[in-house]
Design brief:
The protein has helices spanning about 1-20, 35-40, 45-60, 110-125, 130-140, 150-160, 205-215, 250-260, 270-275, and strands at about 65-70, 80-90, 100-105, 140-145, 220-225, 285. It has about 290 residues and is an alpha/beta fold. The chain has one domain (about 1-285): Zn peptidases (Aminopeptidase). Residues about 10-20 and about 240-270 have low confidence and may be disordered. The structure holds zinc ion.
């Protein structure tokens, strides 16, 4: 997928030079063959849903309550129903003192995060080499897991739109948490970092925000792919809002610094973790 995306990005960059359209990094152009023809090892949205459902009824190491949160789209894709699977996982007879919420797949093209979600749940169920560690964690922690936070657009990726990052409205869900610190240059239809008309305008972020408010987790982890980092942001603290890391080094040095200082790194564009900073929860992480 990385090579395909790279070729598409190069093609888009060249077309920008030719057509002098340097302002928008689009994610909805160019389509390829269906995912199952090119990278059959990735599970589809439907396969992930099915396997997580099977695990929920056969989990040995924990109790899993799997439900679906639904909301109707009222934006560009008005009428489209968005349904997010939610798994609440704890050890039988134990109500962990610590609540952890984990969200995977906010960005549609980051297919491997769905695999990570499935593998993590399998581990909590007592499978694999970290089963003993998972059992230990479950003595103190209960989990709320959203394994696929952008399912409608993910299906577009599965159909061959491999660079699709946004949701069905063309909104970057990780820039749609709240209305502060918006980057005006991205307020453009088609921009892959378009934050949407206002904070929580999208059904996916509305569902996730409501979950945060109802669950009030101590730990929030947003799982992404494509960069080697584990970062926690400065949030909306006005004293720190200018403290962005440079990103004009191609990423390599930035990521290296982030790995060396994983607990004190600002995220350079405001995302879900900045909004969550306001909740003063113990840990807010993206990686
Ligand atoms: Zn992402």
């Amino acid at each position: 997928m990385a090579a395909t995306c790279f070729r598409l990005i190069v093609a888009i960059a060249i077309s920008r030079i030719i057509f002098s359209d340097a302002s928008v990094q689009r994610d909805d152009e160019n389509t390829g063959r269906p995912l199952k023809e090119t990278m059959p090892w990735f599970r589809t949205t439907d396969e992930l849903h099915q396997e997580l459902g099977d695990l929920s009824s056969s989990c040995n190491g924990a109790v899993i309550e799997m439900s679906t949160e639904s909301k109707l789209n009222t934006g560009s894709a008005a009428g489209q129903s968005v349904e997010l699977d939610v798994l609440r996982i704890r050890k039988s007879g134990v109500h962990g003192k610590v609540k952890a919420m984990m969200v995977f797949g906010e960005h549609a093209r980051e297919l491997i995060t769905g695999e990570s979600a499935l593998d993590f749940v399998r581990t909590l169920c007592g499978n694999g080499k970290y089963a003993a560690k998972a059992a230990e964690v479950l003595d103190n922690v209960q989990f709320t897991i959203v394994p696929n936070a952008n399912p409608v657009a993910r299906k577009l990726v599965e159909q061959g739109q491999y660079c699709k990052r946004t949701n069905e409205d063309g909104v970057d869900l990780n820039r749609n948490w709240g209305s502060e610190h918006r980057e005006p240059e991205h307020w453009v239809d088609g921009d892959e970092m378009n934050p949407g008309p206002e904070g929580f305008s999208e059904p996916e972020t509305t569902i996730l925000g409501n979950l945060v408010e109802s669950e009030r987790p101590d730990i929030y982890l947003s799982v992404h792919s494509g960069a080697y980092l584990l970062g926690t942001p400065f949030g909306f603290d006005p004293k720190k809002k200018g403290a962005k890391l440079p990103i004009d080094d191609g990423g390599a040095q930035t990521h290296q610094r982030q790995l060396l200082q994983p607990w004190s790194v600002p995220v350079w564009e405001p995302g879900s973790n900045d909004w969550l900073q306001e909740w003063r929860m113990r840990y807010r992480l993206g990686g």
